[in-house]
Amino acid sequence: MENQKTKFEEIKREFPRRINVGTISDQFWCEKQVELRCLYEIEKESEELKKVEKDMKNYTRRFLKLCKIPTPKKPRIMSG
Known about the structure:
Elements: H1 2-14, H2 21-40, H3 47-66
């Protein structure tokens, strides 16, 4: 176990700047999206997608009218 910690510390010293795993996966997904669009001629924003987004905005607006959620208030700090 101690040997693994020292190896990890050596790697950290060699490579002080690290890349987040999420950044790498986002990059691969972005490339895959471009590939799929080129292969299957998929539009980035289709008419169906625009319609769904519009419907979601309407549903959200209607929901917020039905459910009034109070905004949290900051507690008062009493000095004394």
